[in-house]
Write a structure and sequence with these properties.
Helix 1 (31-44) packs across helix 3. The termini are far apart. It is built from 10 helices and 6 strands. It has helices at 31-44, 46-52, 59-77, 100-129, 136-148, 157-160, 163-177, 199-202, 207-210, 216-222, and strands at 2-4, 18-19, 24-25, 84-86, 152-153, 191-192. The chain is mainly α. The protein has 2 domains: 2-97, no CATH class; 103-222, no CATH class.
């Protein structure tokens, strides 16, 4: 049975929990904080989650359930090394089999987490390379496209990113502040819903880094925008 090696260690996408019956996702937090969120959520939805589905609300029971949930997310995302162990000891406790709808919902959550960290790696690769940004005219051209795109989503970093990812992105902003990289449209540049990148940073990234971590899922999402400059890169 898969379990976490260390419950206090953040997994790559950040610790979270998805309750499919109520379509609820926990807020970013530590393992212990997420356990308390789950207990509070279940107590607030007792008729569905406790009286009908008999889900645990005791501390130990929820801790074990969250542990198994995060271990399975790590396995699905290919993050097992350093995060997951197999403790053996027989089959896991019997749980209600998830419906196809619930499996799809969990997959969507996991895919979103993967997309977030793909964007973080794109920016990190460029920053760590020390290579210069594209010229100011190109950054401005890209910003003009992003501002007019329906995928330019409003909201701060905490709305779109897990706590660990938001912290990394804030450090990226700080690292780039010394370069004084700006456009005239910075106040209108938000987060791209297609690639989940902060566009104030992304518009300055050289092409080879902007394309490096594009997945089929991200490409499909960007195609829902308008004249995406990322898709037009050579």
């Amino acid at each position: 049975m898969a379990r976490l090696i260390n419950r206090q260690k953040q997994i790559p996408g950040g610790i979270f929990f998805w309750q499919p019956q109520t379509r609820w996702k926990s807020s970013p937090g530590s393992f212990d904080n997420t356990v308390q969120q789950i207990i509070a959520h279940r107590n607030g939805n007792r008729a569905i989650l406790i009286d009908r589905d008999h889900l645990p609300t005791d501390q130990a029971g929820v801790e074990n359930e969250l542990d198994r949930f995060l271990a399975n997310v790590c396995l699905q995302m290919g993050w097992a090394e350093g995060y997951v162990m197999d403790i053996g000891g027989g089959p896991p406790p019997k749980l209600r089999p998830p419906s196809q709808k619930e499996v799809s919902q969990l997959s969507a959550v996991a895919a979103n987490v993967k997309k977030i960290w793909s964007g973080v790696r794109t920016l990190n690769d460029w920053i760590q390379s020390g290579e210069p940004a594209v010229d100011a005219a190109e950054s401005e051209r890209r910003a003009t496209i992003c501002v007019a795109c329906p995928l330019n989503a409003e909201g701060g970093l905490e709305k779109w990113f897990t706590q660990p990812a938001a912290a990394v992105i804030k450090r990226q902003f700080e690292q780039l502040s010394e370069r004084k990289l700006t456009t005239s449209l910075d106040d209108k540049l938000n987060v791209c819903q297609g690639c989940l990148c902060p566009m104030k940073l992304k518009v300055h990234v050289p092409a080879k880094y902007a394309k490096a971590h594009l997945t089929d899922a991200v490409i499909d999402a960007l195609r829902k925008g308008k004249d995406c400059w990322v898709l037009a890169l050579p």
